[in-house]
């Protein structure tokens, strides 16, 4: 791939961490002015680490960063920003209690009185980008798409020549995405800015970028002009040789035919997903594949009753479940949320207290008076059953590793008579040993007759544990596949591919 005018170059960049993790293993990257450069890779490929090095949040262990032809080593995001590199982060770091104009000029102006000059500067910025928001609107009252645009305007307002955009469209609706695309094209082609565009969506990468780099396991495995690529080749580079970490047992399980545990009838949540109708059998594991912003977590929360605005009918064992979490738990549902510390556990409680929270009746006298000895016994049982690495159930959950804390989140539902487990990214951010334990537990639960719906960004994991997989994109169910008749490659194309190719694949 020819590089006519690289404004930023990485040469042999390595990043290691004290715990021995090698996140980047000698990455080369050229980013040109006036071009949009797509950066892709699966979770854990090294994208976030590379972005942090470019933005000054991390320093490289080895290798060279060359900016405008000169080696640089900035030691903070401010240093990178002062040199002309701005980053639009995936989780938008704005101040909700400040106005649009205050947020945009906060970084380089501070909270000084908004002069007429700054307001003129804001209007000029709006004209350049081709988009305008009320400058005095509170950021906390804006939609996600509007907040993303404020973040982009903030980056452009710094005068940066390289703008790094980390998954800028992941949480946006289709029309909001189009607005970001228009802005990116205007900045790159109209203002000669260099854009590094990080995305999981293959169709937007094909439509928007001039060049593409794919990372896998900390290495750049593909660097090419976008015009020379197609989605299949990009997907193949992202996935690489399929490594099945959790082999299926030789004899495939077959969920009990004709016995629906869960029935969904036109389940929908406005602006989030749907309508979706499906059945999940007893002893079945249903995988939910989708990229960030596809509606996958919202789908689980609607089933569980934590989305009060959802419409449609949820039946468990043939009985309608009212739309609240108390009714869902009483009916036999257990939810393991994505943010385990904020939503799934009480970090200041011990393992035993967390484990017995949803099922105090089983360790109480007359369903009213918990007996601590029984609770501790339950905690020991959870430690043994799930191989939780803890010396006793008295260990505080906040002191456990991510993988062991996640096991406690699951353990608390094992003693509650749960018939349907809803697992949202149960293996996110945990080590391979804990992942394997949790995925084996999912299969064990199914073999004992419980049903499981599991959301995961790791499609390889879904293939290893699921019987069927549904694919969500932009809130719509675009495909249903038997796990034995699909591949990580196909799921990636369905979740992130062009609408036309998705439609063809579904029909």
């Amino acid at each position: 791939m020819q590089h006519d005018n690289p404004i930023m170059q990485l040469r042999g960049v390595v990043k290691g961490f004290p715990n021995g993790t090698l996140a980047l293993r000698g990455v080369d990257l050229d980013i040109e002015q006036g071009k949009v450069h797509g950066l892709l890779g699966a979770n854990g490929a090294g994208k976030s680490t590379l972005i942090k090095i470019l933005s000054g949040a991390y320093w490289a262990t080895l290798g060279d960063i060359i900016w405008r032809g000169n080696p640089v080593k900035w030691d903070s995001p401010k240093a990178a920003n002062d040199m002309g590199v701005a980053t639009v982060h995936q989780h938008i770091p704005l101040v909700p209690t400040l106005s649009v104009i205050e947020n945009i000029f906060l970084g380089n102006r501070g909270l000084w009185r908004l002069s007429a000059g700054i307001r003129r500067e804001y209007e000029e910025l709006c004209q350049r980008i081709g988009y305008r928001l009320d400058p005095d609107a509170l950021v906390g009252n804006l939609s996600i798409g509007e907040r993303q645009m404020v973040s982009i305007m903030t980056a452009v307002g710094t005068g940066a020549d390289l703008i790094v955009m980390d998954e800028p469209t992941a949480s946006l609706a289709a029309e909001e995405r189009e607005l970001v695309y228009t802005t990116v094209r205007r900045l790159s082609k109209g203002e000669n800015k260099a854009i590094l565009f990080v995305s999981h969506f293959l169709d937007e990468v094909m439509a928007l970028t001039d060049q593409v780099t794919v990372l896998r396991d900390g290495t750049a495995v593909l660097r090419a002009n976008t015009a020379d690529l197609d989605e299949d080749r990009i997907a193949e580079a992202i996935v690489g040789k399929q490594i099945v970490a959790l082999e299926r047992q030789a004899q495939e399980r077959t969920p009990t035919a004709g016995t629906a545990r869960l029935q969904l009838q036109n389940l929908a949540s406005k602006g989030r997903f749907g309508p979706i109708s499906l059945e999940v059998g007893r002893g079945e594991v249903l995988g939910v594949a989708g990229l960030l912003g596809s509606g996958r977590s919202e789908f689980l929360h609607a089933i569980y009753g934590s989305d009060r605005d959802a419409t449609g009918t949820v039946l468990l064992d043939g009985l309608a479940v009212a739309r609240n979490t108390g009714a869902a738990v009483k009916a036999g549902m257990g939810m393991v949320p994505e943010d385990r510390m904020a939503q799934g556990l009480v970090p200041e409680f011990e393992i035993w207290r967390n484990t017995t929270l949803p099922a105090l009746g089983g360790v109480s006298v007359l369903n009213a008076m918990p007996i601590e000895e029984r609770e501790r016994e339950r905690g020991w049982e959870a430690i043994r059953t799930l191989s939780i690495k803890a010396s006793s159930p008295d260990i505080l959950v906040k002191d456990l590793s991510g993988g062991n804390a996640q096991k406690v989140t699951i353990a608390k539902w094992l003693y509650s008579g749960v018939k349907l487990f809803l697992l949202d990214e149960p293996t996110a951010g945990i080590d391979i040993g804990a992942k394997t334990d949790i995925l084996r537990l999912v299969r064990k639960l199914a073999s004992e007759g419980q049903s499981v719906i599991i959301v995961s960004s790791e499609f390889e994991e879904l293939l290893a544990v699921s019987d069927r997989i549904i694919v969500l994109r932009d809130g719509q169910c675009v495909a249903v596949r038997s796990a034995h008749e699909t591949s990580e490659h196909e799921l990636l194309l369905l979740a992130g591919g062009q609408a036309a190719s998705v439609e063809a694949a579904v029909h």
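The radius of gyration is 24 Å. Residues 241-253, 499-507 have pLDDT under 50 and may be disordered.
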